[in-house]
């Protein structure tokens, strides 16, 4: 069944683990926000005689600086998936011209379904998961950052559209 | 019926691959398409099959060839168009899934006759076996018009002869074959009609029976129509050998 969404003869046993790994890196990268957040959060405090005191004037980094770098793996995944889609199309020209058969099948969508479904689905799922994680990160940031330490313009105006 | 009306094709805006071709292909015909390398045989077939763009008009029973009716056409090419990483059986399964008229009985019968391995990936078959698979798939698709472009390049003569004989035996009366080949003598007893192309132009279109009535063999007819000069080789040899003797 799943083979209907790949070019005939595609190495599914290689493609699915590869994309899963990329997906794992993407989510892992985004989850590392929490490590970064708590490192920066700890820097807001001074410790005197075992008591943590909020250092006046210290600010948390903006959300942009905390999150932007973490999205790198999403872009790597997206590029990987675009590359995979190109490889899928190229497979119909490799070692034979099976594209001639694809041009004769009654469904015009067949070629594109087989080339694009898996890469596009991977990107869409990664995008949805990334968006949910992003919302959680924003919530977490405001929930755990002491109010005096929240910098001005903590969320750029274009991000507000996403929230 | 396929009607090819005023079809032209240019590469890079200057090279004329097809020049105002007018041709009608009727159901049940077996047509030989002849011409030297680069004459436009493959280009004509690919234009009919919608694989490449062209100027002019090609109609199948009065309608343009689109996704709606393209499965009435099949194509076997020396470039090969099977899926190389699938076995013959898996290729057949793909055809069966997508072409409702796929003739499984014919596929099985032909693969058994030619002892074609059905569990080996197509890319691992010999060139001759790959050609066989290509032609078997084209014949089994269930198409009414079957285009074969130099399908047996790389097959031995016995294999080719077997194929022509089997082909004549299995074809339904409404199935049409358009066969492009350089092996004119071999197909002489097989085709009904000869179409000659030269430099993108259709230069002649004759029934084989007419050619035979004139007392010509198909090969002689093609040579004559092409203006082939049989004394060309002996003259060239005389010149070369003469020069060598003078030098000696």
Describe this structure in words.
The complex is a heterodimer of chains A (163) and B (248). Chain A is mainly α. Chain A has seven helices and two strands. Chain A has a two-stranded antiparallel ribbon with strand order 1-2. In chain A, strand 1 (45-48) and strand 2 (51-54) form a beta hairpin. In chain A, helix 1 runs parallel beside helix 6 (109-144). In chain B, helix 3 packs antiparallel against helix 4 (127-140). Chain B is globular, with a radius of gyration of 20 Å. The termini of chain B are far apart. In chain B, 38% of the residues are buried. The chains are: A mainly alpha (163), B alpha/beta (248). At the A-B interface, helix 5 of A face strand 6 and helix 2 of B.
In short:
The complex is a heterodimer of chains A (163) and B (248). By secondary structure, chain A is mostly helical.
Describe the secondary-structure layout.
The complex is a heterodimer of chains A (163) and B (248).
Chain A: H1 12-31, H2 33-42, E1 45-48, E2 51-54, H3 63-67, H4 72-90, H5 99-102, H6 109-144, H7 157-160
Antiparallel strand pairs in A: 1-2
Chain B: E1 2-11, E2 15-25, E3 30-34, H1 41-48, E4 55-60, E5 63-64, E6 73-77, H2 88-98, H3 104-113, H4 127-140, E7 145-149, H5 157-170, E8 176-180, H6 184-187, E9 193-198, E10 201-207, H7 208-213, H8 218-226, H9 231-247
Parallel strand pairs in B: 3-8, 3-9, 6-7, 7-8
Antiparallel strand pairs in B: 1-2, 1-4, 4-5, 9-10
Order of helices and strands of chain B: EEEHEEEHHHEHEHEEHHH
CATH architecture of chain B: 3-Layer(aba) Sandwich
CATH-assigned fold name of chain B: Rossmann fold
> First CA to last CA of chain B: what distance?
63 Å
- CATH-level-4 superfamily name of chain B: P-loop containing nucleotide triphosphate hydrolases
User: How many domains is the backbone of chain B divided into?
Assistant: 1
| Biggest interface, chains and residue tallies | A-B, 18 and 29 residues
